[in-house]
Design brief:
The protein is an all-alpha fold and 165 residues long. The protein contains nine helices and two strands, in the order H-H-H-H-H-H-H-H-H-E-E. A two-stranded antiparallel sheet has the order 1-2. It is flat.
Length: 165
Amino acid sequence: MCSTEKNRLHKVLVDARIRLNVLVSDIHGASARATVKALIAQQTMDEMLDLQGRRRASGEELCEALGTEPFSATHCFVADEITKHIEARIARMDQYLLRGLEAWQPQRKLLQTIPGIDINGAAMLLVEIGADMGVFGSTERPASWVGICPGNNENAGKRAGTTKR
């Protein structure tokens, strides 16, 4: 359902002649959401250029992608409603997930001590792999399964990215 809403939002932007996919690599990522919120708030082009985030477009490309016509009041209203609906749905799902994991709060808090794992990441790890790590046999296996283990960047017998100690 959330994907449907995101597609609706993208359709509203396309209807307003805004090519968000030119500006960002992920049209549902943080930079895209910040740009949509700036459009809804009727911010000026200079204010949008100052937005933080990863954009693959230059200032000129930003101006071209956002079009010459202002975001209409109808587009603002519809985009704002869709954005609020997406955010509310995600918040409700997060709350439901966390309530269901209250019995595993100590494990969730322990998982949050891992760099890059926030409360939702820890909850998703618990949902996916459970709290019993003994089933993996070693610490390397769950790290590999989750995809957070370091890679082996080796070429011609030389390892890249390592330093001598």
